[in-house]
């Protein structure tokens, strides 16, 4: 039982780290591509900095659905490769047995090693962020994203556990992914709040913009999800529940847009910040 628990925790940590690293790099590169340095489609205002990148990611998700059935061929090939690997391991069982993580002590050692590596990388990212921020370098955004990304992944994972539980004691709307919905709406609201903070701070605006952009790229980028949102809509549509898909789209986009616009616009109207 304990061995299974350790294996599960290791798997969850590895998946979270891979998702975090891939998402941060992808968003950062797309921001640079669409930003004022290259295509000039977005400016330095962090409010809609991720809009073009999210559109691209949504388009990529749609293309993934189009090639869904081609995965069957890949699964067949993977099955053959798996059998080949198993045969290879069977022939070398004696040499590989000593590396097998099959008891509590080995699990503790592996977990400690993974946590140590993660802590070292986190400390290294913090030091790089400090140096780059002192130089007012745009690359500080990426290092800050690495620092605040893991909490976003953790919160996203916690919210995902609400999916399938429904609303209230009667568990109404169990088909609605409440966790994904809350993650996206919450991210939209926090992103608007972070954007207005960058306008409210009149001292050292460049550093403030770097910090806000890094927070949005890392924490909010890992908290929000376009791919899961698109996959859930596709799953509803494919199972013959088109009205559920449309309802899910509406209750995600409308509250997110309304909340973000309200949080951002009210201070601008009251304090007359420059838009």
Automatic annotation (TrEMBL):
Similarity field: Belongs to the fluoride channel Fluc/FEX (TC 1.A.43) family.
One GO MF term: fluoride transmembrane transporter activity
UniProt subcellular location: Cell membrane
GO cellular component: plasma membrane
Name under which the protein is recorded: Fluoride ion transporter CrcB
Catalyzed reaction equations: fluoride(in) = fluoride(out)
Function: Fluoride channel required for the rapid expulsion of cytoplasmic fluoride.
Organism placement in taxonomy: Eukaryota, Viridiplantae, Streptophyta, Embryophyta, Tracheophyta
Domain of life from the UniProt record: Eukaryota
Membrane-spanning intervals of the chain: 55-81, 108-128, 140-157, 178-198, 210-234, 246-270
Annotated membrane topology: Multi-pass membrane protein
One Pfam family cited in the UniProt record for this chain: CRCB
Record key words, sorted: Cell membrane, Membrane, Transmembrane, Transmembrane helix
